[in-house]
Amino acid sequence: MFNRLCTPLIAAICISLAAFAVAPEAYAAWDLDMPIGKSTLADEIMGLHHLILIVCTVICIGVFGFAFYTFLTCRRSKGAKAASFSHSTRAEIIWTIIPTVILIAMAIPSARTILKIEDTSGADISIKITGYQWKWSYDYLDEDMFFYSSIDAASSAAAQKNSGIDPATVKNYLRNVDKPMVVPVNKKIRILLTANDVIHSWWVPELYVKKDANPGFINEAWFEAKETGIYRGQCTELCGRGHGFMPIVVAVVTDDEYRQWLEGGLAWDQTKQELIAVNLFQADEPADQLAAL
Amino acid sequence: MTDQTAAHDHHGDHHDAPPSNFLDRWVFTTNHKDIGTLYLIFSLVMFFVGGTMALIIRAELFQPGLQFVEPQFFNSMTTVHALVMVFGAVMPAFVGLANWLIPMMVGAPDMALPRMNNWSFWLLVAAFTILVSTLFMPGGAPAGGWTLYPPLVLQTGDAFPFMVFAIHIMGASSIMGSINVIVTIMNMRAPGMTLMKMPMFVWTWLITAYLLIAVMPVLAGAVTMLLTDRYFGTSFFNAAGGGDPVLFQHVFWFFGHPEVYIMILPAFGVVSQIIPTFSRKPLFGYSSMVYATASIAFLSFIVWAHHMFTTGMPIAGQLFFMLATMLIAIPTAVKIFNWLSTMWKGELTFETPMLFSIAFVLLFTIGGFSGLMLAIAPADYQYHDTYFVVAHFHYVLVPGAVFTLMAAAYYWLPKWTGYMYNEKIGKLHFWCSAIFVNVLFFPQHFVGLAGMPRRIPDYPTQFADFNAISSVGAFLFGFSQLLFVAAIWSSVKGKQKATDQVWDGAKGLEWTLPSPAPYHSFNEPPHID
Amino acid sequence: MAHASQDSYYIPHGSHWPFVGTIGLFTIMVGASIWLNGADVGPVIFALGFAVLFVMLFGWFGTVIRESESGIYNNDVDRSFRMGMGWFIFSEVMFFGCFFGALFYARGISIPWLGGDSNNFFTNALLWKDFTAIWPSNGPAAIGGAYETMGAWGIPALNTALLLTSGVTLTIAHHAIQAGHRKTLNIFLALTFILGFIFMGFQAYEYIHAYSELNLKLSTGIYGTTFYMLTGFHGLHVTLGAIMLLVVWLRCLRGHFKEDHHFAFEAVAWYWHFVDVVWLFLFIFVYWL
Ligand code: HEA
Ligand code: HEA
Ligand code: CUA
Ligand SMILES: [Cu+2]
C-alpha cells in the first residue's frame, strides 16, 4: 500500500531534483551554492567551503552506499543468516585514524584563512558602521561623510502585511536602501562595527564579509572588492521587529567616481538603483523623485 | 505465551495493581511507568504545539511578502517554537523513556527517588503553562530567539519575567530528573549488572544526566543575570557599566552546546538498542560506543564558542573552538561506523522501529556533516545565521532526535501496552516522514548558502522557490504526524496481543517481563550473569 | 551494589506533596512576575505561594522524617539520598561557577577590551576614549557614580574565620553523632548555626555600610554587580544552610538519628561545607585579589 503511494512521490522528487541539476541557468533563483565572490578573500573562502563540501559528500556517499549495500544483501528475506562478531579492534582503529587525518588536513588551510580574515591592518579606508533598530549608519572616518541608510520606500511599502503589492514587482525587494555605502574598487576597506541598541550583524554575501555589531564594542572586519558593482546584503543577527528589513547595499565604484561621490557629485537613484551624476537633475529634483517612490 | 504465565506468577500480587482512583493514579503517582507515560504524553502534546508554530512560520514563509502575521509575532513563533520543541518535546520525551525503561533495563523496582520523580514532571507542566501563557500577554511572547540574546531580549514586554521563571522551573525539573536517573543507575542495578553490561540506552542516559546537571544551573544563572540586568540595575551585559552583551552568549552556549548533545545522546542509545535487535546481531564495539559517548560529552564542554565565530572573538579563540569542534566528529564517526557494522552481515528485517533507526543513522550523518562544515570558522562566517544553520540543526534534531523517539515508541509500545501497533500505519508514517522531512529541510541548505538569513518573516524574492518547496514539505510532514497518533492508538486499543519477547531478536531485561510490563518492574531483583 | 541488604527498597505509594509543591512554586513565580511587572497584587500572590511552599516542605519532610524514624529506609535508600544530595550540590557548584565565570570574564576580558586590549583597539579609541582598564571598575560610563570598594581585611576576614570555625564545629558534631555523644553533638551543632547567623549579621552590616557610606550598590557597574550577586547568592545559601542546621539540631534534641543512620545530618553538613568553600573563593577573588 505504501509502495503504491511512495513510488510516484519519490519519482516526482527525483525528477524535480534532476531538473534543477540540468538546468540551473534557466532559473536564476534556483541557486544551490554560495554566490560567486567579488572580494579578494572570496575565492579562498569559497574554496574551503567546496573542499569541505566535497569531503563530506564523498564520505556521505560512502556511508550511504555501504548502508544500502548492507540492506540489500544482509536481509532476512534474502536468506541472510546473522554472523555473531561484535568487535574488531583493527577496524575501529582505522576508522578513528582516517577521520582524524582528514580533519587535520582541513584545519590547516582553515587556520590560514582565519588569519587573513582577521588581518585588518594596512587598510586604505576606514568606515565606522553602526547598527540601529532598524537602519545602519556609515561614518567615513577620514572624510567628512556620515549618513544613515534605511530600507527603500518601495520595499518597505510592499512589506507591510497584506500590502496588496506583489513583492515580485519591486526591484531588489528587501535588498535596496535609500543611501548605499560607496567604496572604491581594489582598496582595502576596514569596517568598524558597533551598534546603538541591540546586536546587529553586517553581511554582504558576495563580498564574503560578515561580522556582528555589538553595542559598546567595536569589531573590525575588512574587504577589498575586485570588481565594481552593486552588492547587496542584510542584517543577520535577530534585532527585533525590523530585523528582516535592514538591508545593506555596497556600491563599489572606481576611484574617480568615489571622489566624485564624496564631493556630492554622485547620488543614489532609487529607481534605477545605481549611482547617478547629480547634475543630470534640476536642483530639487532628487528629493521629488524620492517622494514619488 | 508460556513464560508469560510463569512471569505473571511472580508479579501478580495485588499490591502491584495501579490505584483505581484517577487522582492517585495520574497526579499523585510515584510510579515510574505512570510518570513515564505522563512525560511521553506531555511531550507529544508539546510536539504538536511546537509543530503548529512551525507551520505558522512555514505558512508565512511560503511566499515573499507578509500574508498572515506581523513580524513581531513571527519572531515570537520562532522563539516559542524552539523553546517548546527543545524543552517541552524532545527533552521530556527522553525523560519519559528513561522513566519507563531504565528501571526495567537495570532490574530495579522503580526509580530511586519516586516522589521527586513526580515533582520533576509537574514542575515541567507548570513551566510550560507559564511559557505558553506568555503568548497572550501585553507585548506578546518572547521574541528574541530561543538563544535569548541581550540586549534584544530585554525589550520583551510583560512576558519577560514569566519567561525567566519558566526557564528556572524547567531547569529545576531537569536537574531533579537527572539526579533521579543517575541515582537509579548507580544505586539500583540488579546484582551482576556491572556498568559495562548495561544496555547502551542506560549508558547514554547516565552520561546525558551528568551533562544536564552540569549545564542546567548555568542556564539558570544566565537568565538570572538577564533578570537582574533588566530590573535591578546590574551591568552584566551592559558595556557602559563594564559588562559585555557577548558574555551572555558565552554563558548561554556553555549551556547550549551540551544541550544539543543532551538531545542526541539518548537518541544514540535508543538506536543502539534497536539496530542490534533487527540485525539479530550484538551491537558492534560496545565498549568503544561507551567511550565515544563519554568523549562526545566531554568535548561538548569545550566547543561552545563555535556559535560565536562572528562575534569578534580573538583569533586564538576562533582557532581553539574550531579545532575542538572538529574533534567531535571523531567519536561520532566511531558511532556511525559501529552501527553500520552492526547491520553488516546481520539478518535484517525492516519493521517500523528499524526503519526509523536506519533513517536516523543516514540523515543524522547529513546533519552531522553540515555541522562539520559550520565548524570551519572561515566558512562559518558565511553560513552563520543563515538557513544553512537552520537546515543543519533540523537535520540533527528532527530526523535525528525526533525520529529516534518515534523509533523508540514503536519499539517499546508493545511492551508498554501489551498490544502490537498496526504495522501498516507505522510503515506509512515512516515513509511519509522520511520523505517529507527532506522536502522540508533539504532546500533550506540552498537558500542558506544563497544568502537567506534566518529569523526573518519575509525575504527577497530570489529565495521564493525553495521556500515554497520547504513549506509544502512542512505541511506534509506535519500532517503525517497524525499517523503517529493513529499508530499509538492502534497499540493502546490494540487487537493483537504482544508476546513478552515482542521482537525475535530483542535482548535485555525489559523483554523478560510480561507485556504489558507489571506495575512494579522488578520486586525481586533478577540475576544477571 | 543494590539489594545487598535483605529487606527491600522502599517505594512510596503516591504522595500529594510534590503536586502541592508545584502549585507553590508556580504561584511564587507568577506572583514574582506580576510584581516585577508592577501589579499591586504581586507581593500578595508571591507570599501566598511561599505559604503553600512552606506547607509542602513541612508535609513532605515530615513524611520523610516519620518514614525514616520508623526504620523503613534500608541502606540502599540511604545511599540514594546521599547520591542525590551529592549531585544536587554539584548543580549548585555549577550555578556559582556561572557567576564566577561572569566575574572572571569582566576582569579578564570585558574591562580590558573596553580599555583597548586584544582586538578591541578601536573600542577604546572610538567609543570610550578616556577609559583605562583597571579592576575594580564600574565601567566606562562609571555607572552608579564614584564608589569605594570593600576591603578584604576587615569584616570579610573575620567572616572567613567565622565560617572556617563553623566548619570545624560541625565536624566535631559529626564525630559526636557517630560516637553517640549526644550532648557534644547538640552543643557543637548549635555553635555551628550560631556562627552562621553571626556571619549573616556581619554580612548584613557590611551591606548597609556599603550602601550608605561607600556608595557601593548593586547598580555600581560591573564591580557592584558581581560583588553583590556573588556575595548575595552566597548569603542566601548560608541562610538556608543555617536554617537547615537549626532544623537538624531540633531533631537531634528530640533524639532523632542513629550512630550509623543520619542522612539528614550529613546532607546538611555537606551543604554547609560547600557553602564554606564557596566563601573561600569569594574571599580570594571578590574581596582580596
Ligand atoms: C541534536 C542536536 C545537534 C547535534 C548532534 C549537532 C552536532 C554538531 N553541530 Fe550543531 N547545532 C545544533 C544542534 C546540533 N548540532 C543547533 C540547535 C544549532 C543552532 C543553534 C542556534 O543558533 O539556534 C547548531 C549550530 C551549530 C553550529 C553554529 C553554526 C552557526 O550558528 O554559525 C556549529 C558550528 O560549528 C555546529 C557544529 C556541529 C558539529 C561539528 C556537530 C557534530 O557533533 C556532528 C558530528 C557528526 C558527523 C561529522 C557525521 C558523522 C560522521 C561520520 C560519518 C564520520 C566521518 C567523518 C569525518 C571524516 C569528519 N552546530
Ligand atoms: C527539537 C527541536 C525542533 C524540532 C522538532 C523542530 C521542528 C520543526 N521546525 Fe524548528 N527550530 C528549532 C528546533 C526544532 N524545530 C530551533 C531550536 C529553532 C531556532 C529558533 C531560533 O532561531 O531562535 C527552530 C527554527 C525553525 C525555523 C526557522 C525560523 C526562523 O529562523 O525564523 C523553521 C522554519 O522553517 C522551523 C521549522 C520547523 C518545522 C517545519 C518543524 C517540523 O518538524 C515540525 C513538524 C511537526 C508538526 C507540524 C506537528 C504536527 C501538527 C499538526 C499535524 C497540525 C495539527 C494541528 C492541530 C491538531 C492543532 N524551525
Ligand atoms: Cu539588525 Cu537584524
Ligand atoms: Cu554547538
In short:
The complex is a heterotrimer of chains A (293), B (529) and C (289). Chain B is mostly helical and 529 residues long.
How would you summarize the topology of this molecule?
The complex is a heterotrimer of chains A (293), B (529) and C (289).
Chain A: H1 2-22, H2 42-73, H3 89-118, E1 125-132, E2 135-140, E3 145-149, H4 153-158, E4 181-184, E5 189-195, E6 200-204, E7 209-213, E8 219-223, E9 229-235, E10 247-253, H5 255-262, E11 266-269, E12 274-277, H6 285-292
Helix pairs in contact in A: 2-3
Chain B: H1 2-11, H2 22-26, H3 32-60, H4 71-106, H5 114-133, H6 159-187, H7 200-231, H8 245-279, H9 286-299, H10 315-343, H11 352-375, H12 377-383, H13 387-417, H14 423-450, H15 464-492
Helix pairs in contact in B: 3-4, 3-5, 3-15, 4-5, 4-6, 4-8, 4-13, 5-6, 6-7, 7-8, 7-9, 8-10, 8-11, 8-13, 9-10, 10-11, 11-13, 11-14, 13-14, 13-15, 14-15
Chain C: H1 17-36, H2 42-69, H3 75-114, H4 121-127, H5 155-179, H6 182-214, H7 221-253, H8 263-288
Helix pairs in contact in C: 1-2, 3-7, 3-8, 5-6, 5-8, 6-7, 7-8
Work out the helicity level of chain A.
25-40%
Report the CATH superfamily of the largest domain in chain A.
Cupredoxins -  blue copper proteins
Percent helix of chain C:
over 70%
The succession of helices and strands of chain C, N to C, reads HHHHHHHH
Number of continuous helical runs of chain A? 6
Rg value of chain C: 23 Å
